[in-house]
Protein backbone atom coordinates (compact mmCIF):
# COMPACT_ATOMS: atom_id res chain seq x y z
CA UNK A 1 0.00 0.00 0.00
CA UNK A 2 2.83 2.41 0.86
CA UNK A 3 4.54 1.67 -2.48
CA UNK A 4 1.32 2.38 -4.39
CA UNK A 5 0.83 5.69 -2.54
CA UNK A 6 4.44 6.77 -3.12
CA UNK A 7 4.34 5.71 -6.78
CA UNK A 8 1.06 7.60 -7.36
CA UNK A 9 2.49 10.74 -5.76
CA UNK A 10 5.62 10.58 -7.93
CA UNK A 11 3.54 10.11 -11.10
CA UNK A 12 1.33 13.08 -10.16
CA UNK A 13 4.30 15.36 -9.46
CA UNK A 14 6.06 14.24 -12.65
CA UNK A 15 2.96 14.97 -14.71
CA UNK A 16 2.68 18.47 -13.25
CA UNK A 17 6.35 19.15 -13.84
CA UNK A 18 6.15 17.94 -17.45
CA UNK A 19 3.19 20.25 -18.21
CA UNK A 20 4.50 23.52 -19.73
CA UNK A 21 1.72 25.50 -17.99
CA UNK A 22 2.89 24.43 -14.57
CA UNK A 23 6.54 24.94 -15.48
CA UNK A 24 5.75 28.56 -16.31
CA UNK A 25 3.35 29.36 -13.47
CA UNK A 26 4.51 27.20 -10.53
CA UNK A 27 7.83 27.82 -8.85
CA UNK A 28 9.87 26.96 -5.79
CA UNK A 29 10.68 29.41 -3.01
CA UNK A 30 13.13 28.75 -0.15
CA UNK A 31 11.74 28.80 3.37
CA UNK A 32 13.06 28.80 6.93
CA UNK A 33 10.94 28.20 10.03
CA UNK A 34 11.33 27.67 13.74
CA UNK A 35 8.79 26.11 16.11
CA UNK A 36 8.94 25.45 19.82
CA UNK A 37 7.17 24.06 22.88
CA UNK A 38 8.15 23.11 26.44
CA UNK A 39 10.03 19.94 25.35
CA UNK A 40 12.22 21.47 22.68
CA UNK A 41 12.33 23.17 19.31
CA UNK A 42 12.24 22.21 15.64
CA UNK A 43 14.27 24.08 13.03
CA UNK A 44 13.10 23.66 9.42
CA UNK A 45 14.78 24.49 6.12
CA UNK A 46 13.05 23.67 2.87
CA UNK A 47 11.12 24.67 -0.23
CA UNK A 48 7.55 25.71 -0.99
CA UNK A 49 6.01 24.98 -4.37
CA UNK A 50 3.15 27.19 -5.41
CA UNK A 51 1.56 29.16 -8.20
CA UNK A 52 2.58 32.72 -7.32
CA UNK A 53 1.93 34.17 -10.77
CA UNK A 54 -1.68 34.99 -9.96
CA UNK A 55 -3.03 37.36 -7.34
CA UNK A 56 -4.44 34.50 -5.27
CA UNK A 57 -3.35 30.94 -4.69
CA UNK A 58 -5.18 28.12 -2.90
CA UNK A 59 -2.67 25.25 -2.59
CA UNK A 60 0.98 25.04 -1.52
CA UNK A 61 3.26 22.01 -1.36
CA UNK A 62 6.01 22.25 1.26
CA UNK A 63 9.08 20.09 1.97
CA UNK A 64 11.35 20.63 4.96
CA UNK A 65 14.42 19.09 6.51
CA UNK A 66 13.36 19.27 10.18
CA UNK A 67 15.72 18.99 13.14
CA UNK A 68 14.36 18.48 16.67
CA UNK A 69 16.55 19.73 19.54
CA UNK A 70 15.36 19.00 23.12
CA UNK A 71 15.40 21.42 26.01
CA UNK A 72 18.14 20.93 28.60
CA UNK A 73 16.03 18.76 30.94
CA UNK A 74 15.96 15.98 28.34
CA UNK A 75 18.96 13.85 27.42
CA UNK A 76 20.70 15.53 24.45
CA UNK A 77 20.67 12.32 22.40
CA UNK A 78 16.90 12.64 21.95
CA UNK A 79 17.49 14.93 18.97
CA UNK A 80 16.44 13.60 15.57
CA UNK A 81 15.98 14.68 11.96
CA UNK A 82 12.97 14.15 9.65
CA UNK A 83 12.25 14.98 6.04
CA UNK A 84 8.72 16.42 6.19
CA UNK A 85 6.33 17.02 3.31
CA UNK A 86 2.99 18.77 3.63
CA UNK A 87 0.15 20.20 1.60
CA UNK A 88 -1.55 23.45 2.55
CA UNK A 89 -5.07 24.49 1.60
CA UNK A 90 -6.17 28.08 2.03
CA UNK A 91 -5.79 31.55 0.58
CA UNK A 92 -2.28 32.87 -0.13
CA UNK A 93 -2.39 36.53 -1.09
CA UNK A 94 -1.50 39.71 0.76
CA UNK A 95 -2.97 37.89 3.76
CA UNK A 96 -2.33 34.13 4.15
CA UNK A 97 -4.78 31.78 5.88
CA UNK A 98 -4.33 28.01 5.59
CA UNK A 99 -4.74 24.53 7.05
CA UNK A 100 -1.97 21.96 6.64
CA UNK A 101 -1.46 18.19 6.66
CA UNK A 102 2.05 16.68 6.65
CA UNK A 103 4.08 13.52 7.17
CA UNK A 104 7.73 12.52 7.63
CA UNK A 105 8.52 11.09 4.18
CA UNK A 106 11.79 9.45 5.24
CA UNK A 107 9.94 7.27 7.76
CA UNK A 108 7.74 5.82 5.00
CA UNK A 109 10.87 4.22 3.52
CA UNK A 110 12.78 3.22 6.67
CA UNK A 111 11.55 0.64 9.16
CA UNK A 112 13.57 1.44 12.26
CA UNK A 113 14.66 -1.30 14.63
CA UNK A 114 13.81 -0.64 18.24
CA UNK A 115 16.43 -1.17 20.90
CA UNK A 116 15.79 0.45 24.27
CA UNK A 117 19.21 -0.30 25.72
CA UNK A 118 19.87 -1.28 29.30
CA UNK A 119 16.30 -0.83 30.50
CA UNK A 120 14.67 -3.15 27.96
CA UNK A 121 12.92 -5.15 30.68
CA UNK A 122 11.65 -1.99 32.38
CA UNK A 123 10.09 -0.54 29.23
CA UNK A 124 9.70 -3.69 27.15
CA UNK A 125 6.40 -5.05 28.46
CA UNK A 126 4.63 -1.68 28.27
CA UNK A 127 5.85 -0.78 24.81
CA UNK A 128 6.00 -4.19 23.14
CA UNK A 129 2.40 -4.03 21.95
CA UNK A 130 2.56 -0.39 20.85
CA UNK A 131 5.63 -0.96 18.66
CA UNK A 132 4.59 -4.12 16.84
CA UNK A 133 4.16 -2.06 13.68
CA UNK A 134 7.66 -0.79 12.84
CA UNK A 135 6.55 1.81 10.29
CA UNK A 136 4.51 4.51 11.99
CA UNK A 137 5.72 7.78 10.50
CA UNK A 138 5.61 11.07 12.38
CA UNK A 139 2.81 13.30 11.10
CA UNK A 140 1.29 16.69 11.84
CA UNK A 141 -1.69 18.92 11.18
CA UNK A 142 -1.58 22.67 11.49
CA UNK A 143 -3.09 26.07 10.85
CA UNK A 144 -1.33 29.26 9.93
CA UNK A 145 -1.81 32.93 9.15
CA UNK A 146 0.46 35.66 7.85
CA UNK A 147 1.08 38.22 5.17
CA UNK A 148 2.99 38.50 1.91
CA UNK A 149 5.06 41.31 0.44
CA UNK A 150 6.54 41.34 -3.06
CA UNK A 151 9.58 39.34 -2.02
CA UNK A 152 8.84 37.98 1.48
CA UNK A 153 6.14 35.91 3.17
CA UNK A 154 5.80 35.72 6.95
CA UNK A 155 3.54 33.14 8.59
CA UNK A 156 2.74 32.38 12.21
CA UNK A 157 1.50 28.83 12.73
CA UNK A 158 0.54 26.10 15.19
CA UNK A 159 1.13 22.40 14.55
CA UNK A 160 -0.17 19.36 16.37
CA UNK A 161 2.55 16.75 15.89
CA UNK A 162 2.66 13.00 16.40
CA UNK A 163 6.32 12.38 17.34
CA UNK A 164 6.98 8.71 17.84
CA UNK A 165 10.59 9.53 16.92
CA UNK A 166 10.93 11.60 20.11
CA UNK A 167 9.55 8.80 22.26
CA UNK A 168 11.82 6.22 20.64
CA UNK A 169 14.92 8.37 20.99
CA UNK A 170 14.10 8.93 24.65
CA UNK A 171 13.75 5.19 25.28
CA UNK A 172 16.97 4.41 23.42
CA UNK A 173 19.15 7.01 25.16
CA UNK A 174 17.62 7.72 28.55
CA UNK A 175 19.29 5.97 31.49
CA UNK A 176 16.94 7.15 34.24
CA UNK A 177 13.92 4.78 34.46
CA UNK A 178 12.11 7.22 36.77
CA UNK A 179 12.17 10.13 34.33
CA UNK A 180 8.74 10.57 32.69
CA UNK A 181 8.49 9.52 29.06
CA UNK A 182 7.57 12.45 26.77
CA UNK A 183 4.14 12.32 25.18
CA UNK A 184 4.26 11.53 21.47
CA UNK A 185 1.45 14.05 20.82
CA UNK A 186 2.74 17.63 21.05
CA UNK A 187 1.62 21.16 20.14
CA UNK A 188 4.22 23.48 18.60
CA UNK A 189 3.97 27.15 17.67
CA UNK A 190 6.28 28.73 15.13
CA UNK A 191 7.34 31.39 12.68
CA UNK A 192 8.07 30.85 8.96
CA UNK A 193 9.89 33.11 6.51
CA UNK A 194 9.87 32.59 2.73
CA UNK A 195 11.74 34.57 0.08
CA UNK A 196 10.13 35.05 -3.38
CA UNK A 197 12.43 35.65 -6.32
UniProtKB/TrEMBL annotation:
- Its source organism is Rheinheimera riviphila
Q: Which UniProt keywords apply?
A: Signal
Name of the protein in question: Outer membrane protein beta-barrel domain-containing protein
Task: Using the record, list the residue span of the signal peptide; answer none if the entry has no such feature.
Answer: 1-18
Q: Which domain of life is it from?
A: Bacteria
Amino acid sequence: MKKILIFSTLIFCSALWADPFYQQEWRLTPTLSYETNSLGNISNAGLKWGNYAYDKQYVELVTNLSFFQPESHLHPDTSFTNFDASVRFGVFHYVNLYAELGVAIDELFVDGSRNYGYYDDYYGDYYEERYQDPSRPDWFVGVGAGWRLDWLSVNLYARYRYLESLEEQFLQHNFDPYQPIPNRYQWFTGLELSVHF
